[in-house]
Amino acid sequence: MTAVLPTIRDFEAAARARLDPAHYDYFAGGAGDEITVKANEAAFARLALLPRVLRGAGTPNIGVTLLGGRVAMPVLVAPTAFHRLADPEGEKATARAAAAAETVMIVSMAATVAVEDVAAAAPGATLWFQLYVQPDMDFTESIVRRAEKAGCAALVVTADSPARGRRDQDVRNGFDDLPEGMCCENLRDGDGDGDGDGDGDGDGDGDGDRGPVRPIVMSPVISWEHVDLLRRMTRLPIVLKGVTHPADARLALDHGVSALYVSNHGGRQLDGVPAAVDLLPEIVAAVGGAIPVLMDGGIRRGTDVVKAMALGASAVAVGRPVIWGLAAGGERGVAHVLELLRDEVEHALTLCGLASIRDLEPGLVRRC
User: Fold this and answer.
1) CB-CB contact of 316 with 73 (8 Å)
2) If we measure between CA atoms, which residue out of 115, 164, 177 comes closest to residue 142?
3) Which of 87, 125, 134, 232 is least surrounded, with the fewest CB atoms within 10 Å of its CB?
């Protein structure tokens, strides 16, 4: 990245110019006809803000508390796979940028850097770990233990993937595997050497005699029973990701989850699911303030963050914008994307006459 880019759209354009076309399509694309991918962004354009004036509110406070921890802004780094396709440092660079922004990075189970190494690269970072429950619960537990040992503060359990999404762009491009020398490092059969590099040779460089990598298994047998098993397995808070139906939100309360995460997987799983922000109010109503509700999908501006939070989100997460920053400028690119969103949130709150992110409420949003 040779110059400061003014918008996330500019970062996307820069990323597209730098990425292998098949890799760009992997990150940008979605399932089927990509109806849901497009809907996520279009839904925010149909929401308008109705600002208040002459409030004397001063500089707004945009910090929030989530699961007992304080973050400097209500924008988290969503779990996304394969960061090393965008930058050689991969998830390490992303974690350092998230730490500098004083926000949460949700490390993907499909990360190309082991969770131990992500944590070591960004001391003091607040990391959560995203998990696809595997039918082999012993293997699932081994991954959970690695996340705990690495210092992750929460477990984000993806519930919307009993099967892989059908992504036509990847089929057209023949993209079905990572390049040589790259893999999903959290899918190895254990570390076993205590040095946190996942390679078993004890030198910390990640290039030694490493264990085998298992495939991620998307299984239709995963059920609420597995959520209960996880609840007994770990003391980490469980955030249930991929909730779109109010009935499931109410069931989640019964099963003791600590937070819900409204998401249609960025349009990458079932095409035709409504936009995440359109689903948000019903999920918020279903839980009645009992637990936090997060959301992702289609956020490209600070005003989008404000709209989502006015509709009841406790915080939002961004995935593709972070990848665009990483591809365009590595750690600095991610840091600038997060800075852009932070500044735009503060600016939008100021123009809405609000002193704090906590002052947002549904009356500030109108549907066009």
Assistant:
1) no
2) 115
3) 232
Q: pLDDT-derived band of residue 302, with 50, 70 and 90 as boundaries?
A: very high
Is residue 148 within 8 Å of residue 237, measured between CB atoms? Answer: no
pLDDT in tens, 352-367: 999 999 999 999 999 9
Report yes or no on 250 lying in a domain.
Answer: yes
> Environment class of residue 190 by beta-carbon count within 10 Å: exposed (0-12), middle (13-18) or buried (19+)?
middle
Indicate the average pLDDT of the chain.
Answer: 94
Q: Is 186 exposed, middle or buried (0-12, 13-18, 19+ CB in 10 A)?
A: buried
Model confidence pLDDT, tens digit, residues 233-244: 999 999 999 999
Cα dihedral sign, 10-325-99-76: positive
Q: How much of the chain, in percent, has pLDDT values that exceed 70?
A: 93
C-alpha–C-alpha distance, residues 44 and 75, integer Å: 16
Q: What is the average pLDDT across 193-219? A: 58
Strands 315-318, 259-262: pairing kind: unpaired
Q: 185: buried, middle or exposed (CB in 10 Å: 19+, 13-18, 0-12)?
A: buried
Catalytic one of 23, 83, 265, 336: 265
Domain harbouring 27, CATH code: 3.20.20.70
Q: Which domain holds residue 314?
A: 8-171+217-367
Query: Exposure pattern of 236-246 as b/e (b: 16+ CB <10 Å)?
Result: bbbbbbbbbeb
Tell me if 202 is assigned to some domain: no
Residue 1 has a pLDDT of 55
pLDDT in tens, 254-291: 999 999 999 999 999 999 999 999 999 999 999 999 99
265 is catalytic: yes
Residue 232, class by beta-carbon neighbours within 10 Å (0-12 exposed, 13-18 middle, 19+ buried)? exposed
DSSP string of 244-256?
-SHHHHHHHHHTT
